[in-house]
Design a protein that fits this description.
eight-stranded mixed sheet, single chain, 24 helices, four-stranded antiparallel sheet, 729 residues, alpha/beta
Length: 729
């Protein structure tokens, strides 16, 4: 949010003169339009509109006028009635406006009066002209009329605007009076119709009531209905009793069913009834004794002996007796289960029968209730209509109205329109909107790089550094001289920051061979290459600076070196590299200039000797900086970029167009160049906006040892030098 606000504030400061001119023109236009516009006066009459007629009698219906106290459309209907053509026609007829100067009698504007073109009024007499003027008067009334409800009240201001203050007063009062009379007339015109309608409706409702009562009596006789509520209560009591008995029968049946399943599954041996039966227990004791005796005698007698056979016969009879007794118990349990199941079924059928009868009784009760409700509704409607007929006959002749005039309009002394303050305010708003549109168009058409974010967003490159625009007021010093002569200057600080960024641009530190190029000439790549070489040399590194721009070399001029021999001699095989390097004014930096300009620079640069030179130099020097030619239109820069370990693209702030930079970056990508980032050169904070200015905003350049920012001139006079005390601080 803060960044967005700073961006817009920067744009406003950047285009402050454009904004000021547009706003001044808009204000002047608003001032002229105000004093050339015809003045409009307004008269306002206050009317009170009640929803209900005032009560005169105790039995008078207070809502007889509007048909309902909660009608949401009531007041809107009244407002539209006041603004209707019918009301305008009544006013025009009552005031005989067709025969007055109201029609076409508007005051002339300031311009018309200055030019002597005041309006004149000709009164006509023939019927067709009078009717035409009547229609014109109606149109003028409807055009100047407005209705203004007073919030949270039943008051309404009827406002009429006209160039003539007298007519503004008269028409406003006339509309209020005619509205009051029209409401009164409409209410009494509808009174007769209302009485006739109520009489007819009363007879219809009376017949409907008689028919409803007859139908109710016939239905009660047919269904035998005496007391619907009592009959339903008795049936519900029976259903509840059967329901309770049915629930007990279901519980009993479930219990007997579980007991029978147990008896049926294990033969009845584990049943409680079996375990507790005395006959079975005695028989089981006898059986155990017989088996014991048999086993004892079996040791001395054979099973075929008569005594042993007799024992076996007694054992079998005893077992048969036990089984017979168990079967008797199982049959008893089965009989109890069958009885419980039969009882449950009988109670269920009875319950279903009672439910069906109750449902049928309820249906009859519903039909009876509907018929009874129809009788009650018809009787209530009949009583209500009869009461209204009686009231209507009493209040029909009472002279009451729900509309009353509270305040009548006075002759206005001050015009409502035009308002100089409002017009100037609107003109200022329009001027600001026009200025914003102009700034937007300007910014859209200006597709240059003005901030680091522009480079990152449009090119996808990391911005390694930002160097400010250097303009020496005396024109006797270059940017390189400033960096060499004043290491504490903001420009020198910017190049040191660029050096640091390059040292962290790759995992191994700064590229050993670094190409400095730009998309087009004049973007400051040669100065950047020289300043970078100086900054790396200040770290104690051995630096080789090569001027590879063999079409428009500039390093030999910047460093005041002889260019009679150089890179072209080595690439052509005419000399060795060791004899072509030269020392310069920058300590620790060795320079190889271009040498004589060849007719075929691209062919020389494409030879294997350039790669050999860079690889050999990388062994002897800690960093090799190549000042290359521009990318666009030439094949030189992509060739060098494909050989160098890293390439840095120099972009001139507020000058390099985005399309050119994108094309240059695309050509470097095609050459498989390792682009480590970009430098925003000749950065002008005034072109970028307030978020990149001096001081506390973004990328400021006033941080260099307490001074230095005032030495960079951005289209303004040079600021006075600081005192010695300030410099010392």
């Amino acid at each position: 949010m803060r960044a967005t606000l700073l961006k817009y504030l920067g744009l406003a400061i950047k285009h402050k003169y454009l904004i000021a001119v547009i706003c001044f023109v808009a204000l002047f236009g608003g001032f002229v339009v105000t004093f050339m516009t015809t003045k409009i006066y307004s008269g306002s009459t206050t009317v009170k509109i009640d929803r209900a007629l005032p009560k005169v009698l105790n039995n008078q219906n207070s809502s007889s006028f509007d048909g309902g106290m909660n009608d949401p459309t009531f007041y809107q209907t009244q407002y539209e009635l006041i603004k209707s053509r019918m009301m305008a026609d009544r006013v025009a007829t009552a005031l005989n406006l067709a025969q007055t100067d109201f029609v076409g009698g508007a005051r002339a504007s300031y311009l018309d009066r200055l030019l002597g073109r005041g309006s004149t009024q000709n009164i006509v007499r023939d019927a067709a002209a009078i009717r035409a003027r009547q229609e014109q008067a109606i149109g003028q009334i409807m055009g100047g009329l407005s209705v203004q409800p007073v919030a949270l009240s039943s008051l309404v201001r009827i406002r009429f605007s006209s160039p003539n203050p007298l007519w503004a007063q008269r028409i406003s009062i006339a509309i209020a009076e005619q509205y009051e009379r029209s409401v009164f007339d409409m209410r009494y015109a509808a009174s007769s119709h209302t009485r006739t309608f109520l009489d007819e409706r009363l007879q219809q409702v009376k017949i409907k009531l008689q028919d409803s009562e007859t139908e109710l009596l016939k239905y009660a006789q047919k269904q035998g209905i005496v007391d619907v509520d009592n009959k339903q209560s008795q049936m519900m009591m029976q259903i509840q009793g059967i329901q309770a008995a049915y629930s007990d029968a279901v519980a009993t049946r479930v219990k007997q069913e579980q007991l029978w399943q147990q008896a049926d599954n294990d033969g009845g041996a584990a049943l409680p009834q079996v375990m507790g039966d005395s006959l079975i227990q005695a028989a089981r004791g006898k059986l155990a004794q017989l088996k014991t005796t048999y086993q004892d005698k079996l040791t001395v007698m054979k099973p075929a002996f008569p005594e042993m056979v007799a024992l076996q016969t007694q054992i079998k009879e005893t077992e048969r007796d036990i089984r017979s007794q168990v079967n008797l118990i199982k049959n008893s349990i089965k009989a109890q289960y069958d009885a419980a199941l039969s009882q449950e079924k009988a109670l269920g059928e009875k319950l279903e029968q009672l439910n069906a009868e109750a449902l049928e009784a309820r249906v009859h009760g519903v039909e009876y209730t509907i018929l009874l409700r129809e009788v009650d509704t018809a009787r209530s409607l009949y009583d209500g209509l009869l009461q209204q007929v009686k009231q209507q006959s009493v209040v029909a002749d009472i002279d009451t109205n729900n509309v009353s005039i509270i305040d009548r309009a006075q002759i206005p002394g001050v015009p409502d329109f035009p308002s100089l303050r409002k017009n100037l305010f609107m003109a200022l708003l329009l001027g600001l909107a026009a200025a914003a549109a102009a700034i937007a168009i300007t910014e859209v058409l200006d597709d240059t790089f003005k901030t680091p974010e522009d480079i990152e967003d449009k090119l996808g490159l990391s911005v390694l550094g930002i160097t400010p625009l250097f303009l020496d007021p005396k024109s006797d010093k270059t940017a390189l001289n400033e960096v060499i002569g004043d290491p504490t200057s903001p420009l020198a600080e910017a190049y040191r920051s660029l050096r640091t960024a390059l040292q962290f641009s790759t995992a191994d530190g700064a590229p050993r061979t670094l190409l400095i190029t730009s998309s087009r000439p004049g973007e400051g790549k040669s100065t950047t290459a020289a300043c970078l070489a100086l900054n790396f040399a200040q770290l104690g590194m051995r630096v080789l600076l090569i001027d590879a721009d063999m079409r428009n070399p500039s390093l030999h001029r910047v460093l005041s070196l002889d260019n009679s021999s150089g890179l072209s001699n080595y690439l052509s095989g005419a000399a060795e590299a060791s004899g072509l390097v030269k020392n310069c004014i920058m300590n620790g930096v060795v320079v190889m200039t271009t040498g004589p300009l060849p007719p075929n620079p691209a062919e020389l640069l494409a030879s294997p000797r350039l790669g050999t030179l860079l690889s050999t130099a990388a062994e002897s020097f800690q960093i090799v900086i190549v000042d290359g030619p521009p990318v666009m239109g030439l094949a030189d820069a992509p060739i060098i970029a494909s050989i160098a370990e890293g390439t840095m693209l120099v972009i001139e702030g507020a000058k390099t167009r985005r399309a050119i930079a994108r094309d240059a970056l695309k050509r470097l990508d095609f050459a498989r160049a390792r682009v480590v980032g970009a430098l925003l050169n000749k950065f002008d904070p005034k072109r970028a906006g307030v978020s990149y200015g001096y001081g506390s905003y973004g990328y400021g350049y006033g941080y260099g040892y307490g001074y230095g920012a005032e030495r960079y001139i951005y289209g303004q006079k040079e600021k006075p030098a600081l005192s010695s005390d300030q410099n010392a601080s």
